[in-house]
Amino acid sequence: MLIEAAGFLENEKIDIYDITNGSRISTYVIPGEPGSGEIGSNGAAAHHVQAGDLVILAAYGWMTTEEAAERRPRVVFVDAQNRPLATADRERTPAVHA
Q1: What H or E segment, with its residue span, contains residue 6?
Q2: Dist. CA 50–CA 66, nearest whole Å
Q3: Which pLDDT score is estimated for 97?
Q4: Closest CA to 82 of 59, 43, 55, 50
Q5: pLDDT score at 13
Q6: Which of 23, 29, 58, 76 has the most crowded Cβ, counting Cβ within 10 A?
Q7: Going by C-beta distance under 8 Å and a sequence separation of 6 or more, which residues neighbour residue 68?
Q8: 28: which strand partners?
Q9: 10 Å Cβ neighbour count for 39?
Q10: Is 13 helix (H, G, I), strand (E, B) or coil?
């Protein structure tokens, strides 16, 4: 469900931004048990991302200027069990007050 909601492909290269500890890792998509909500990390990435960490998963693509003008990102918001709640074509950034 989460892979489909994000539009990720099996074995596609992605970056993981761990909000909890600041780690940034490049890895690839390995599907888990469908519907489990599990976002696992294997190999070296497993040393940088722990269960319960808040993460951003990002994929990128090469495209022409014309393609980029038509392309919108797909942002997936999830609940505490990583079940998709909503999608958007931009990140909703909370206001920052000094």
Answers
A1: helix 2-6
A2: 39
A3: 52
A4: 55
A5: 93
A6: 76
A7: none
A8: 13
A9: 16
A10: strand
Which residue spans within the chain are E strands per DSSP?
Answer: 13-18, 24-28, 55-58, 75-78, 84-88
pLDDT digits (tens, 9 = 90+) for 56-89: 999 998 999 999 999 888 899 888 888 888 888 8
Domain range list for the chain = 2-88
The pair of structure tokens assigned to 42 is 């294997």
Q: Does domain 2-88 have CATH number 2.40.40.20?
A: yes
- Tokens describing residue 57: 């998963």
Look up residue 19 and give its two tokens: 């909000």
pLDDT over threshold 70, residue 49: yes
Ramachandran class of 7: left when φ > 0, alpha when ψ lies in -120 to 50, beta otherwise = left
